[in-house]
């Protein structure tokens, strides 16, 4: 099967970190015989500058066809005053919506060399490796009715938390499938004590488990208790599955257990395509970082680890993904640090390019 990949570097540091991913992609082609048909296109402010829209129909169509989309970041001060309909983030939102990417995978993994970077004690986070699966296309961010209405002589802001059974079932399946490839454990988080949607969430997750994944260990937790447990003893978890709103908060919380924004990858997956591969968009969690753009300071690891996720989840190359993650671990253990990773204990300062080159060298050595 050919491997097709659409690269959308975007704005700010997006193109800088993506250039380092290109080196990694080339390495896998040259040294491991894993080749990709790569196309590249514009998204966000870069697309607006050229086409007057943050995502053209042609780019959207291309994204629907390929096995995986890899995106850098979008946005920047230059575009802040644009009309909402053409803002850079609309390009990203359109991709997520039209590809129907309902499962957002946010790993929180603590590399030993960076354990002192966490806001928590070293022994609480060292070796941490958890995955938060956030439902991404429904829930209170999309539910109708919504709006600000007038009630008597005051305004009322309204949003609706709404989940259908099938929306819950499909993201639950994503979580159970992931767990089977990891630690075989899923914890589902909602607020079934106070929300109807939470009651349904809990029931449907349990039903899917009992009918299709009885071998996976399943537990349920209220999302507020989950937040406490994530900061008290995060290593108790393997896969956490939760809705859009709680997932937004819990994944950001979990991210900070592990240190810098420059280290965090993500994947957003949808339904399987004709070739069996899921619709997929991979992107670092960070934004376009205009404060450091163009200075060679950006940490490319978040984007490189996003490509590792693509190897694992789109191209069925789990061993090669692990090889890449080990190379990242190695350069960190060797003390190489982009500016964002430079802690009190110091390290060997490297630029964006220096970090990319070092990871390629570690792949060569491994
Ligand atoms: P940001 O993530 O771009 O930056 C936050 C801070 O983290 C900055 O100090 C930045 O220098 C640093 N940082 C981020 N990524 C880094 C990396 N790889 N290496 C080293 N340091 C890094 O978030 P911010 O400043 O709130 O937003 C900047 C722009 O990015 C805005 O236009 C925003 O809309 C956009 N944005 C885009 C996202 C996306 O494309 N998915 C996500 C978040 C923000
Ligand atoms: Mg968030």
Verbal overview:
With 366 residues, this protein is α/β, with parallel strands linked by helices. It folds into two domains: 1-107 and 260-366, 3-Layer(aba) Sandwich (Isopropylmalate Dehydrogenase); 129-257, Isopropylmalate Dehydrogenase (3-Layer(aba) Sandwich). The chain has helices at 14-32, 45-51, 57-65, 88-98, 122-125, 165-180, 196-212, 223-232, 244-257, 301-313, 318-333, 352-365, and strands at 4-10, 37-40, 68-73, 103-109, 129-135, 147-151, 154-158, 185-190, 217-222, 239-242, 265-272, 278-284, 336-337, 348-349. The strands form three sheets. Strands 2-1-3-12-11-4-5-10-8-9 form a ten-stranded mixed β-sheet, with helices on both faces. Strands 6-7 form a two-stranded antiparallel ribbon. α1 (14-32) links the parallel β1 and β2 (37-40). α10 packs antiparallel against α11 (318-333). It is globular. The model has no long low-confidence stretch (mean pLDDT 96). The structure holds 1,4-dihydronicotinamide adenine dinucleotide and magnesium ion. Magnesium ion binds at residues 248, 252. The record marks 141, 191 as: Important for catalysis. Substrate binds at residues 96, 106, 134, 224. Pathway: Amino-acid biosynthesis; L-leucine biosynthesis; L-leucine from 3-methyl-2-oxobutanoate: step 3/4. Mg(2+) binds at residues 224, 248, 252. It catalyses: (2R,3S)-3-isopropylmalate + NAD(+) = 4-methyl-2-oxopentanoate + CO2 + NADH.
């Amino acid at each position: 099967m050919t491997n097709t990949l659409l690269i959308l570097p975007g704005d700010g540091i997006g193109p800088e970190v993506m250039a380092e991913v290109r080196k990694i992609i080339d390495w896998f082609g040259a040294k491991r015989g894993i080749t990709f048909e790569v196309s590249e296109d514009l998204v966000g402010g870069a697309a607006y500058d050229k086409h007057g829209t943050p995502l053209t129909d042609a780019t959207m169509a291309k994204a629907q066809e390929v096995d995986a989309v890899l995106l850098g970041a979008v946005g920047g001060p230059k575009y802040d005053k644009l009309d909402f309909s053409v803002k850079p983030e609309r390009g990203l939102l359109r991709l997520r919506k039209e590809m129907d990417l309902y499962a957002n995978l946010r790993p929180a993994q603590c590399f030993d060399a960076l354990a002192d970077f966490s806001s928590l004690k070293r022994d609480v986070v060292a070796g941490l490796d958890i995955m938060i699966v956030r439902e991404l296309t429904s829930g209170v961010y999309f539910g109708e009715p919504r709006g600000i209405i007038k009630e008597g002589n005051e305004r009322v802001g309204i949003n609706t938390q709404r989940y259908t059974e099938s929306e819950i079932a499909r993201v639950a399946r994503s979580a159970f499938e992931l767990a089977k490839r990891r630690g075989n454990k899923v914890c589902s988080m909602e607020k079934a004590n106070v929300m109807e949607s939470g009651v349904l969430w809990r029931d449907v997750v349990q039903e899917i488990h009992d009918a299709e994944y009885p071998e996976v260990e399943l537990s349920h937790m209220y999302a507020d208790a989950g937040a406490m447990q994530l900061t008290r003893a995060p290593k108790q978890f393997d896969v956490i599955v939760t809705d859009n709103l709680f997932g937004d908060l819990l994944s950001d919380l979990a991210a900070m257990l592990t240190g810098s924004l420059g280290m965090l990858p993500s994947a957003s997956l949808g339904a399987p395509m004709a070739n069996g591969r899921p619709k997929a968009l991979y992107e670092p969690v960070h934004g376009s970082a205009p404060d450091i753009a163009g200075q060679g300071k950006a940490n490319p690891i978040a984007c490189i680890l996003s490509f590792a996720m693509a190897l694992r989840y789109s191209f069925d190359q789990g061993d090669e993904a692990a090889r890449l993650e080990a190379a990242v671990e190695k350069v960190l253990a060797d003390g190489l640090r982009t500016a964002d990773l430079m802690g009190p204990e110091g390290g060997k300062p490297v630029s964006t390019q220096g970090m990319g080159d070092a990871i390629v060298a570690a792949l060569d050595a491994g």
